[in-house]
Amino acid sequence: METTLYLTRHGQTEWNLIDKMQGHMDSPLTELGIQQAVWLKVRLEDVHFDAIYSSSSSRAINTARILSNNRPIEIQTIDSLREINLGLWEGQQIEHIQRKCPIQYAQFLTKPHLYSPIGHGESYLELLERTIPLLEDIISKHKGEQVLIVTHRITLKVIMSFFMKKRLHEIGDMPDIYHTALCKISINDGSPKVVLYDDISHYQE
Question: What Pfam families does this protein's entry cite (predicted)?
Answer without folding.
Answer: His_Phos_1 (PF00300)
